[in-house]
Amino acid sequence: MSWSGLVEAALDVRLTTTAAAVVFTVLTVAGLAALAARRHRRWLLTGIPTAVALTLVLVVLAAVLVEQVWRPFPDRLPRDVYAWTAVAVLAVALLAGRWLVRRRDRARPLVAAGLVVAALAVVVAGAGRINAVFDAYPTVRSALGMTDYRTVPLDAALAPATATVARRPLSETWSPPADLPATGAVTTTPIPGAVSGFRARDARIYLPPAYFADPRPELPVLVLLAGQPGSTDDWLIGGRLPQIMDAFAAGHEGLAPVVVLADGTGGQFDNPLCADSRLGNAATYLALDVPAWVREHLQVDDDPAGWAIGGLSYGGTCALQLATARPEVYPTFLDFSGQAEPTLGDRDRTIREVFGGDTEAFARNNPADLLARNRYPGSAGAFVVGLDDSEYRSGIEQLTTAARAAGMDVHLTELPGAHSFAVWSAGLEKELPWLSRRLGLVAP
């Protein structure tokens, strides 16, 4: 194998497999052993206990800051995150102790370099195990921020075809040209909050191979949202969106939905609860501004019957909120591990800080309340959750029952895994055939 081939193979090594977990664990044990291995009485009786105590104090303080003071997330971080953070901090504390206490260690270049390498190995291993909790960066390539999908400039995406094909299902009339690209492509664009005033980050848009044909089929649209914290890149990296869509298109003559990865929060740690409130008009942005921009600038299916909204975690909650509050805009939805209700952590705080104490305003944005009050005979959706997702599974199951009782055509898919991209990417792949039939892309 050539050098470039070896590099490519190394970049494609998966970081969230059982084998990777074993490697990270071995690195952790070996690194901590190297950092702690001194026979001097003072180090054993004072140095190591001090490093351990300092680690515990720092991690507990960080947990209190995150969970009680800052509270950037609606739910508590998994214990594994704090455990592996503590392991990484302990490695740095041991390195600092060796550096400060043992002058001989830092005076010997090989020993000093070995200690630094050991500490780095533990830190990297800890980061790897934390990443495995969420499966956010599945490969070395993705962890390094390197993409493996095709991109196109915005002007290429906006260039109109001379003619379009509009019919449901498209698969019955569509004939791909000989020069159809083998894969789709991703482009980046701002979508202004013209009506809402919402300040959104740039959107990413996946365009399937058929979009680059002339005549161009008027493809259905899936607006897909990230979680919180999150960004519009998350579905491209952890969610493997381009690979999943390209694989589907390869089996359907280049046809797949156009996927708009819109910003539903406005910032990495922002949480506007997908509502119109003092935190920003996120609901109006996603229900009015985004569809209007897409219809104006892209040649896609104009009928709401060809549109769907979906998302993971916070994004799943948001998708169901819009499907219940704006069914005329999004009659189809995908809820991947969404919360039982929009929340900042608890209902009292949510109503107080987002809706100014107005419980009725909260109810108008809460899917469970809307499903209890209204009927949705024209709506359909898919709920997806991990079998090991103890935090969200019961809520998803309750919402599935409520949606069915409200007249929605819904189904629940439970997959192996917890609250991670492993479930969400697998869920998207599994639900894509159903979604494509629902949106009129392929025949039932």
UniProtKB/TrEMBL annotation:
GO molecular function: acyltransferase activity, transferring groups other than amino-acyl groups; hydrolase activity
UniProt xrefs under InterPro entries: AB_hydrolase_fold, Esterase-like, Mycobacterial_A85_antigen
Sequence intervals crossing the membrane: 15-36, 43-66, 81-101, 110-128
Gene3D superfamilies listed in its UniProt record: alpha/beta hydrolase
Short name of one Pfam family: Esterase
Entry keyword Hydrolase: yes
Domain of life: Bacteria
Keyword Repeat recorded: no
Keywords: Hydrolase, Membrane, Transmembrane, Transmembrane helix
Protein name: Alpha/beta hydrolase-fold protein
Taxonomic lineage of the native organism: Bacteria, Bacillati, Actinomycetota, Actinomycetes, Mycobacteriales
